[in-house]
Amino acid sequence: MSQENQQYEIFQKRQKNLLEIVDQQLSILEPLEMKSWKSNIQKVKERILSERFKVVVMGEFKRGKSTFINALLKQEVLPAKATPCTAIIHEVKWGESPKGVLHFIESEDGSIRNPQEVSVKEIKKHTVIKIGQNHKEGIKNSPYKKLELFWPLELCKNGVEIIDSPGLNEHEIRQKITTDYLSTVDAILFVLSCEALASKSEIEFIHKNLIAINHEEIFFICNRFDIIKEEWEKAEITEYAINRLAPLTKLGKEGIFFISAKEALEGYLTENNERVQHSGVPPLKKQLEKFLATQRGRLKIIQPSKQLKNSIYEARRTIPERKALLQTDLKTLEERYEAAQKPLGKLEKTSYNIIRRISNFREDMKDLIRQRAQKFYYDINGKIEDWVEEYEVQEGFGVVDLIPGKTDTAIQKIIDEVNKHISEKIDVELNNWQNQELKPFLESRLADLKTELDTQASKFLSQADQIRLEITGEIITNLEVETDIKRSPIERILAAAGALLFVNIATAGAGLLFGFEEMVKGLMYQIGAVIVTTILFGSNPVVLAIAIFAGSLTHGAGVVLNITKKIKKEIVKKYKQEFHNLDRSDEIATTVAEQLGKMEKIVEQGLTNEIQSITEQVKSILKEKEKGQKNVDKKLRELEILSKQLNQLDSELDELIAEVALP
């Protein structure tokens, strides 16, 4: 058995151990009538069972991504070789027998066709850009959202799913990868070509779309290393790659690999192990599997363990409360519960005030973000003319372009070039605005909100504890309720809502604690991802009528000398005319409000669960006492047993966490 398979087995063993602890905890929560916590832990179980290692392979067009994936899988599964480019995203998953499943995009009327199963041989005709069709047209015209490819390969059998993305050159692809995948993937393999290593656009994408959302452990795949023949040139490229890429990944130079995907694939297909080893792919695969099974596997155990810890803490608090309630005579308990109705009403009012504060915060932020977004658009509008005027057109326009049939083409090239320049400028402005203004502003306001919520949550929890005291008749000081979990008041409420279930590992980072800050990171990522897809103007913001345009521009003397200036002037004019239609301030503000609304719902659920836990406990005890003293004595004995089981379970969980936390 390989070392990598052993590591997967270790992870799967720990995962199985964790599931056993989850089942034991569910069996404890059931008799304790902890309904909301039982629901939370059931969701934890579902998440553990559905966990997969997701690996996304990305890079610009023609970098050899599909060939590389085929080399990883040791089979020519995905369309590669001389075919143009993949037009849709491929998800490679484990399956007993090979098959493809095509998923359709939503139609204009909102309906979605049922997925279509296709044979592996048919994949190519559905998923690649046709020869002669440009990237943009191929992606735009595809009726498919993605392809699921099921394949009986050991790598996937270990729970690994590989996502092959089309090239990142087009804005639409960057949008889809950012919004649909990057918040959930466990590893990113960024494929570059040694022919043009680490271009400006590639580095910008890494900074803006990966590092910005905490993907700090990136695998850089420098493909086609075999085409570099001279040793001195290989040494230069290696040094350049390390200097350029190592600072972009926490893996350092250990995360940079020089390979030949083509040689690896051909080696696997011809069973030529020497070629496979020479390709450089095996060390990469080994490092990737180690990373998944250990570092990412560690987080997949730790995160649900923390939610289990929270539930154990609450169960330890509940057991002595139930004991006290069971030991109180029925009439007294009924009187105390009746007297608690007024304080419970005040508690609900406190809860309402907390939610209203978050709601007001959300609406205030919506207005403030709208104002800032409007200013952003206004500032850009004022810069466009300068951007166009200062830009030196590379294509140019010559006398030969005045030949009938060539004029429109030549003009369109200049339009596209200037348009691309403006789009790049806007992209830079967006990145600066988002990271230097919007993000700090949101984080600062959310930090202030947390401070305020902690004060209000502390008041809420004090009221709740006072009600419990008045109903039970005694202060619960049992050492059983002590815990090493350090939580602020608002984080205790978030835990009651199962907030950890809303935090993605990718956005939470490598820490072991998942609290308010981690939830904010997740919200910030979602806000940023949606804004990126909303704020830009599409791939061609200015649509020009070329026939009319060409006729007006090629009229009069000095055509060749002045036509570029005329084109630039017309582009500025068109932008000025269209810009007011491109303002997405309201959409940006709504996006922020919607994401903050998710936090509001989580807090509301946590507050509701806290209140319900009080009433549910009392009602369940009243039912038990109505069955007679014999039943009460039985329940008290059961609580003693549950307390011991809980202690044992907590020890087992601590051992698992300690084992996983070891480097």
Tell me briefly what this model is.
With 663 residues, the chain is an alpha/beta fold.
Task: List how many beta strands DSSP finds.
Answer: 9
Radius of gyration: 30 Å
- Briefly note the structural class of the backbone: alpha/beta
The main sheet comes to: 9 strands, mixed
Spatial arrangement of strands, main beta sheet = 4-3-5-2-6-1-7-8-9
Mean pLDDT metric: 81
Could you estimate the helical fraction of the residues in percent?
55-70%
Poorly predicted ranges (pLDDT <50, ≥5 residues)?
131-135, 477-484, 507-513, 537-548
Measured between the Cα atoms of the first and last residue, the distance is: 22 Å
Number of helices: 22
The proportion of residues in beta strands is: 5-15%
How would you sum up the global shape? globular
